[in-house]
């Protein structure tokens, strides 16, 4: 507990909660941000859950530059690499290059700085895309085939970045250990109005835009459970060299999510749509809107993944998906985002 843990991307949704839970468990934490002007907002967000006091250090480092990383890693036996670009774009290199170069940069800095283990936040995007439909769930032995069909630049970035991480470990990892956590759709409470990017779907539903729900299906996991799995992977010796999928269960539809918001939030969810959008309409809008265009290949598809390995090996027990969705909506309302 006296060893400082480095967290990359502390201003993000997952990164912020990672800092909170580490502080709660008594760890000193060093967190990277691209711009130190974000430090006051970061400290304020963390303080809504736990007093950072003098156990939180904020340093500047960018995934696209070597500057700052040796100092960031110095003295840290564990690195939780949570930072990742999240953007909707048709320019693949705007998201793929920072993801791939970033994870390589972190691993090399951790290795050279004497760190023991890196826990890397990957995604189920690196697991189950580019494959024919199947009835059995995907697991940690599966890998996305980036040449297997249409997929967004973000999906490709997650798949290529995790492949790059394991390749680097095999070829030049030295004594460093790597564990990856592969979450499905991450929901749950936001710490601040500036750390809500993963909750865009909930924000749009509560705002009534779009007025209809596309036929989309996805797994759900609470951000607090994702962080819990990171810390279990960080602490368990047997987690070295392993991948762990984080999902609460079977995929749910956007209509399921909308109905859950209606049921649990009452009048605050009065604008949430509860009718399905025709696929043809979604495809038409997707021709002109990048975010909607990224969804077109996913219409009607139900990709299931299993978290049996994390439950079995690390005794991980996630919340029900409805709790994560409800907490998302409640926090967005409380923060005045909708």
Automatic annotation (TrEMBL):
Residues 5-241 form the NAD-dependent epimerase/dehydratase domain. The keyword Oxidoreductase applies. It comes from Skermania pinensis. InterPro entries: Epimerase_deHydtase, NAD(P)-bd_dom_sf, NAD(P)_dehydrat-like. Gene3D superfamilies: NAD(P)-binding Rossmann-like Domain. Belongs to the NAD(P)-dependent epimerase/dehydratase family. Dihydroflavonol-4-reductase subfamily. It comes from the Bacteria. The lineage of its organism: Bacteria, Bacillati, Actinomycetota, Actinomycetes, Mycobacteriales. Pfam families: Epimerase (PF01370). This is NAD-dependent epimerase/dehydratase family protein. Keywords: Oxidoreductase.
């Amino acid at each position: 507990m006296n060893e400082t843990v480095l967290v990359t991307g502390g201003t993000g949704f997952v990164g912020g909660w990672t800092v909170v839970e580490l502080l709660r468990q008594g760890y000193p934490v060093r967190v990277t941000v691209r711009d130190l002007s974000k430090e006051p907002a970061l400290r304020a967000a963390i303080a809504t859950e736990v007093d950072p006091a003098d156990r939180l250090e904020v340093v500047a480092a960018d995934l696209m530059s070597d500057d700052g990383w040796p100092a960031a890693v110095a003295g840290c036996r564990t690195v939780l690499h949570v930072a990742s670009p999240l953007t909707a774009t048709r320019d693949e290199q705007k998201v793929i290059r920072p993801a791939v170069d970033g994870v390589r940069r972190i691993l090399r800095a951790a290795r050279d700085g004497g760190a023991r283990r890196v826990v890397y936040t990957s995604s189920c995007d690196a697991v189950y895309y580019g494959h024919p439909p199947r009835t059995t769930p995907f697991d940690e032995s599966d890998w996305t085939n980036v040449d297997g069909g249409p997929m967004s630049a973000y999906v490709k970035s997650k798949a290529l970045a995790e492949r790059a991480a394991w390749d680097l470990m095999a070829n030049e990892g030295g004594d460093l250990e790597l564990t990856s956590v592969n979450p499905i759709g991450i929901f749950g409470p936001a710490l601040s109005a500036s750390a809500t990017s993963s909750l865009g779907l909930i924000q749009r539903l509560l705002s009534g835009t779009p007025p209809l729900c596309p036929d989309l299906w996805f797994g759900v996991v609470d951000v607090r459970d994702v962080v819990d799995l990171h810390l279990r992977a960080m602490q368990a010796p047997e987690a070295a060299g392993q991948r762990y999928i984080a999902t609460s269960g079977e995929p749910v539809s956007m209509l399921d999510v909308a109905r859950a918001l209606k049921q649990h939030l009452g009048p605050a969810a009065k604008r949430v749509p509860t009718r399905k959008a025709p696929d043809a309409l979604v495809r038409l809008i997707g021709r002109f809107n990048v975010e909607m265009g990224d969804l077109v290949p996913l219409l009607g598809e139900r990709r299931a993944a299993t978290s049996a390995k994390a439950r079995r090996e690390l005794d991980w027990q996630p919340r029900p998906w409805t709790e994560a969705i409800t907490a998302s909506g409640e926090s967005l309302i409380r923060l005045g985002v909708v």
